[in-house]
Design goal:
alpha+beta, four-stranded antiparallel beta sheet, 29 helices, globular, Vps16_N, lysosome, Vacuolar protein sorting-associated protein 16 homolog, Vps16_C
């Protein structure tokens, strides 16, 4: 690939990742191609169904690493394929013409299939897109009837038929899937017009500041984060703006009117620079808000893969990476320059002095320096040609590189249980559920420190619910079985396990969960088959609900229960109002107020459904707050908490848990700084570690108060610093706690330090 023009764009550094060693018998243009993000594998479906090909030639599905090493090859024995794409879990989704989607593993193992519905089957698939949302990976289909059908999450398949586009008689010139406000949309171009489809309506939209004279849109591209949109017009102009089409960032005239083969975004996270890479048959152009472009001549057929921080470009012979350079070269080498690039260069020159000098600083903790060096060594090692991709630990396991994954865990001193759990859970992707569970049990037995519930949770996270249930049968602790079964919505099985355990507290936990989950009729039908549970529930009612009630309260209770059976909100509210009146007559103001609060919550939930979409009715007050936070409506969640007088501590717990579930670490940090936390900062550490994010947890460990400091440091694995704090506090209980976390040669020095401190204290 030869460079033609160099300009002032900050996007433009391109270097070779690999020299490809694959033996391609056909050009990339003659294959269906899909490359997974984050340096992932490449799938090629050779000989797709084309008229010039002989009918007897069977297509071949091949999967390669990013360096071109073959991972799988299999004859295609199914129907004609229209599109390929990788899910967020690195499963290959193959969309067929009949609307059936076949799912394959990284090594070509068939996982499952699903259908996009009868309408798609009848009208066939013209085109398809695989896209990613915060819920998972989605599939969008354009049918022969020029209608769109999509599912935003193939792991929890719910098909949505999008509204019809008025007057659409042929396929749109271009289209894409967008994600706005946690909802998937379709943006399509018909001549000079753009239409945005959501679940309810088709709306005409106009990009602000678009140059006049456009009669057709030829290509569109959404950024990796789905925040920005680029449109290529038949006038040769490229419009760049926000995906909401409310703001224009810039516009560039490339003076080429031929439709490009591909167009993708190229930018770094949090960078203010915006650029788009456009590819034609033998030309690659990088454009942004600069007056000039950067152009490259393509020596052979190439394919673009958008990444979070750049663009991968691979062809028959090479695999390259194009990304943004933060500052221009002259800024780096200028005398006394304080530009980031100049500082980085200076830091590189001073690296050896820094490594030597840190030994003479009293208060400089070397841990972060050492860990960064370790991480860099790992990243460089796994880029090796025979591994063929910059990988995460989970991706290593998924590629069945178990020994290497274990070596990395040992080198980075990851907890052994965490490493084993990840390996076994990812290994569980393939095979019969019962056989895999049995094989895992045969390998592990009753090994101390290994939790079957942790492995089951990993399997559940991978979409293998039945395998998770089989694994839980080997978990001896009912207290670990039941919560996961409830999370998997296997409440009746959870009830059986809780009853088998004989733990009444555990049974009560499941009963209260069932009461909130099921309607009243199903709830009591479930209890009919479980005499012990029914007996416990009667005791609960006697002590918690019926103890102080007179005839009026019985009437109110009956009316309240009756209200739960109504399907329409109006019927429920009327029944609840009758209940409230009965409670007032019986002078039971507490029950009356609670009933009125329930009526108020129902009306509010109906209003939230009308305004925001989604499901709110029948959620508890706390679940309503959590759902609002998960939907990005924190202000409304806070207002709801004020209206219903939710204590500040409870609100902080709800927001903390919801933001961590979303993995919205930036918003969580802002929330933690909004005011002094009423629950302290240890819960922040605990929640972050529960999500396996030690980097974020460390931010809050430094803010934890002295009385909980040692516990916080141990949670993030900083045993040495925890020991220093415990010694400073002269607290024997804390010293004992730290000593219990010292394992092997790694923490030998810390253990000796604690023992010396104890010996000195005894002498005094």
């Amino acid at each position: 690939m030869r460079r033609l023009i160099s300009a002032c764009l900050s996007v433009g550094r391109k270097y070779e990742l690999y020299s490809m060693d694959w033996d391609l018998k056909e050009e990339l243009r003659d294959c269906l191609v899909a490359a997974a993000p984050y340096g992932g594998p490449i799938a090629l479906l050779r000989n797709p169904w084309r008229k010039e090909k002989a009918a007897s030639v069977r297509p071949v599905l091949e999967i390669y690493s990013a360096s071109g090493l073959p991972l799988a090859s299999l004859l295609w024995k199914s129907g004609p394929a229209v599109s390929l794409g990788w899910s967020a879990e690195e499963e290959l989704l193959c969309v067929q013409e009949d609307g059936v989607v076949l799912v394959y593993g990284l090594h070509g193992d068939f996982r499952r299939h699903f259908s996009m519905g009868n309408e798609v089957l009848q009208n066939r698939v013209l085109d398809a897109r695989i896209f990613h949302t915060e819920f998972g990976s989605g599939v969008a289909i354009l049918t022969g009837a020029h209608r769109f059908t999509l599912s935003a999450n193939v792991g929890d398949l719910k098909l949505r038929r999008m509204p019809e586009v008025p007057g659409l008689q042929s396929a749109p010139s271009c289209w894409t899937a967008l994600c706005q406000d946690r909802v998937a949309h379709i943006l399509l171009a018909v001549g000079p017009d753009l239409y945005l489809l959501d679940h309810a309506a088709c709306s005409a939209v106009t990009p602000p500041g678009l140059a006049p004279g456009v009669s057709s849109f030829l290509q569109m591209a959404v950024s990796f984060t789905y925040r920005h949109l680029a449109l290529f017009t038949d006038t040769g102009y490229i419009w760049m703006g926000t995906a909401s089409l409310k703001e224009k960032l810039c516009e560039f005239n490339c003076n080429i009117r031929a439709p490009p083969k591909q167009m993708v975004w190229c930018s770094r996270p949090r960078s203010k620079e915006r650029a788009v890479v456009v590819a034609w048959e033998r030309r690659l152009m990088v454009v942004g808000d600069a007056p000039e472009s950067i152009q490259f001549v393509l020596d052979e057929d190439s394919y673009l893969v958008p990444e979070l921080d750049g663009v991968r470009i691979f062809s028959r012979s090479t695999h390259e990476f194009l990304h943004e350079v933060p500052v221009a070269s002259e800024e780096i080498f200028k005398i006394a320059s304080m530009a980031p690039g100049a500082l980085l260069l200076e830091a590189q020159k001073e690296y050896e002095a820094a490594s030597f000098g840190k030994c003479f600083l009293d208060r400089f903790p070397p841990d972060s320096f050492v860990r960064m060096c370790q991480d860099l060594r790992v990243l460089n090692a796994i880029r090796d040609y025979y591994i063929g991709i910059p990988l995460t630990y989970s991706q290593l396991v998924l590629r069945r590189l178990y020994p290497l994954a274990i070596q990395i865990c040992e080198y980075l001193r990851l907890p052994e249980v965490q490493g084993v759990s990840r390996i076994l859970a990812h290994w569980a992707y393939v095979g019969n559920n019962e056989d895999v569970a049995r094989a895992i049990n045969q390998k592990l037995g009753d090994t101390p420190g290994v939790s079957y519930s942790d492995i089951a949770a990993r399997a559940y996270g991978c979409g293998r619910t039945e395998l998770a249930i089989k694994l839980l049968e080997y978990e001896p602790r009912s207290g670990e079985q039941v919560p996961l079964l409830l999370k998997m919505k296997r409440s009746k099985l959870a009830l059986s396990k809780a009853i088998e355990s004989g733990d009444t507290d555990l049974v009560f936990t499941v009963l209260l969960h069932l009461k909130n989950e099921l309607n009243r009729g199903d709830f009591f039908m479930t209890l009919r088959n479980q005499p012990m549970a029914l007996s416990l529930y009667r005791q609960f009612c006697k002590h918690q609900e019926l103890e102080t009630r007179g005839p009026g309260c019985w009437s109110g209770s009956f009316s309240g229960h009756l209200g739960l059976l109504f399907a329409r909100i109006e019927g429920r509210v009327a029944a609840l109002q009758t209940a409230a009146d009965a409670f007032y007559k019986a002078k039971n103001e507490f029950a009356a107020k609670a009933t009125e609060d329930q009526m108020r919550l129902l009306r509010l939930q109906r209003r939230l459904e009308d305004e925001l979409g989604g499901r709110f009715v029948d959620l508890s007050l706390h679940d309503t707050v959590t759902t609002l936070v998960l939907g990005g409506h924190s202000k409304r969640a806070e207002q709801l908490a004020r209206d219903f007088r939710i204590p500040d501590k409870r609100l902080w717990w709800l927001k903390l848990t919801a933001l961590a579930d979303l993995e919205d670490w930036e918003e969580l940090e802002k929330f933690s700084k909004s005011k002094k936390s009423p629950i302290g900062y240890l819960p922040f550490v605990e929640i972050c570690m529960k999500q396996h994010n030690k980097y974020e947890a460390k931010k809050y460990a430094s803010r934890v108060g002295p009385e909980q400091k040692v516990k916080a440091l141990l949670l993030v694995g900083d045993v040495a610093q925890a020991a220093d704090v415990a010694i400073e506090h002269r607290n024997e209980a804390e010293l004992t706690l730290v000593l219990s976390h010292c394992t092997g040669a790694t923490d030998a020095a810390t253990a000796d330090k604690i023992q010396r401190t104890r010996a000195q204290a005894q002498k005094k």
